[in-house]
Write a structure and sequence with these properties.
With 523 residues, the protein is mostly helical. It is built from 27 helices and two strands.
């Protein structure tokens, strides 16, 4: 927790000092476990500092994959996955790390460690380039094939994790996956026909694999004959009342919309939109977390990330973060995809989803809020594309600005009230995308003439004039300034609880993520 809320300069030196001495302590496996695990635990909050230390720490973590203690091996796999997720440059060590992971998978018998090793493949493979991932496709598929073909002999969680790794490989590999389709697709069909409760997670991940195959490089042609059956499989999953199937169903719909585009996806859009509507209208509720399978419940997981694991030992874990949260976030991403890749077919749904997504930006969970901001921005961009530009300098009166206003007003609420930094960052990126689209519709080129044009051109550009008339530019500028000053609502907890001992502008670090993963601004 400290690594997420304090500057890494106050945390990372202590972590590295402890890990460097304890990771090789042959006499104390608990120290080795703690040394390896803590590097993964701080990866998110200390990503920049760890990037400078990768050359030193990565070989030691890889070596820990062969430790005599299963706890240490599990922690090593956890940490390798965390490094790939959070630390820039970590996957540059793939030529050393991944062969070690595949070797460990051949020897490992602990289901908990096997699952963590598959997590490493999942996180590393999706971040590689097509030429880099190619050597790892066959061994990854062989692991998944064994998990699927062995049926009851493989734990359900291991099978699920292996399919996640295949999905990541498919996302990165593109055309390199096509030669494997004759052997892969029948296995995916086996997963998609399963209906027992314990098999539904693997069924959901099989949908993810199909989505990556369809949207990957060359996937539209290679998978053309299989797209109708894939869409049916995703649709059928909604009838089973299993939230993870619905989540991945939305994912497959979104990937297929991206691959097919407006003309070819139009026949599927009405059903997909209706499923998104149903998911977004679900009661969030409080869910019982029965995520762990019976065969894994007593695996002895020491919880490398330090979380309380009482629910593994017979306790009941109730949480407002139910599967419905992930389902709603996935539905928001799907709507964003429809608005972006099928703008003509999506036009009849604009008014309804403008209202729905505006409400979702105030959802109780930050994951849904963040995705709703991105979707609302795509809806606004869709509306702008469909609406001709008004002539003259008067504020644009086009109906498209109902969606524009909704998106920018949602960002205003987020910057004023939201205490989650990721949701606020998503809201700001959404607003930037919408404002840029308004300017481009007015014929402005921000890359050439700069954002100062927002002020200078309000007298000649009707769209920009409309933004000024609605006070959007002035209000958002003021709120962004408060973030740079460290005074936003999403920064209050940081300043109340942590003494930075430095410039208050350091708070801007928390508001602006270093990647555009939440929302790509460029079309």
């Amino acid at each position: 927790m400290l690594s997420l809320n304090a500057p890494s300069k106050h945390v990372l030196p202590e972590v590295l000092a402890f890990a460097s001495s304890a990771i090789g302590d042959a006499s104390d496996q608990k120290k080795r476990h703690a040394a390896v695990a803590v590097l993964g635990i701080v990866a998110e909050g200390c990503a920049e500092g760890l990037a400078d230390s990768l050359a030193a720490i990565t070989p030691a973590i890889i070596n820990a994959l062969t430790d005599t203690s299963s706890d240490v091996r599990s922690a090593a796999a956890f940490t390798l996955g965390q490094l790939a997720e959070w630390v820039d440059g970590a996957t540059a060590f793939h030529a050393t790390a991944l062969p070690a992971v595949f070797a460990a998978l051949k020897m490992e018998r602990d289901p908990r460690v096997l699952e963590r090793l598959m997590y490493v493949l999942d996180t590393w493979l999706e971040r590689l380039e097509e030429h880099e991932v190619r050597p790892y496709i066959t061994p990854t598929l062989h692991i998944a094939y064994a998990a699927i073909d062995n049926g009851a002999q493989t734990s359900h969680r291991t099978k699920e994790a292996s399919l996640g790794a295949v999905a990541s490989a498919a996302a990165a590999a593109g055309r390199a996956m096509h030669e494997h389709l004759p052997s892969l697709l029948p296995r995916l069909e086996t997963c998609l026909l399963a209906s027992l409760d314990q098999d539904l997670k693997s069924r959901a991940r099989a949908l993810e694999v199909l989505g990556m195959l369809i949207s990957g490089n060359g996937g539209t042609g290679a998978m053309a004959a299989h797209i109708p059956s894939a869409m049916r499989a995703a649709h059928d999953g909604f009838d089973l009342e299993y939230t993870e199937l619905r989540e991945y169903g939305h994912g497959l719909f979104a990937e297929t919309a991206q691959a097919l585009g407006d003309e070819l996806f139009a026949e599927y859009l009405p059903v997909c939109v209706e499923k998104a509507k149903e998911s977004l209208e679900l009661d969030d509720g409080v869910a019982y977390d029965s995520e762990d399978d019976d065969d894994d419940a007593n695996s002895g997981d020491d919880s490398d990330d330090g979380s309380d694991n009482d629910d593994r030992n017979g306790g009941i874990n109730y949480s407002v973060f139910s599967g419905v949260v992930e389902e709603k976030a996935a539905a928001c991403r799907a709507v964003a995809s429809y608005a972006l890749y099928c703008p003509v077919s999506f036009l009849p749904y604009l008014p309804k989803f403008t209202e729905t997504m505006s409400a979702m930006t105030d959802h109780m969970h930050d994951a849904v809020r963040a995705q709703a901001h991105a979707a609302l921005a795509r809806i606004a961009q869709c509306a702008l594309r469909a609406s001709p530009r008004s002539s003259g300098a008067d504020p644009d009166s086009s109906p498209a600005f109902a969606a524009v206003d909704a998106s920018l007003n949602a960002t205003h609420r987020s910057l004023t009230e939201d205490d989650d930094r990721d949701a606020v960052a998503a809201a700001m990126e959404a607003a930037a995308a919408v404002i840029q689209s308004v300017g481009e519709r007015d014929g402005l080129d921000f890359k050439r003439i700069g954002v100062s044009t927002l002020v200078d051109s309000s007298g000649t550009c009707s769209g920009i004039a409309r933004l000024h008339a609605g006070q959007h530019i002035e209000n958002l500028s003021s709120l962004c300034l408060s973030i740079l000053q460290g005074k936003a609502a999403c920064q209050e907890d940081v300043h109340d609880e942590i003494d930075f001992g430095g410039d208050e502008d350091e708070g801007a670090y928390w508001a602006f993520p270093k990647s555009n993963d939440w929302f790509p601004i460029q079309d």
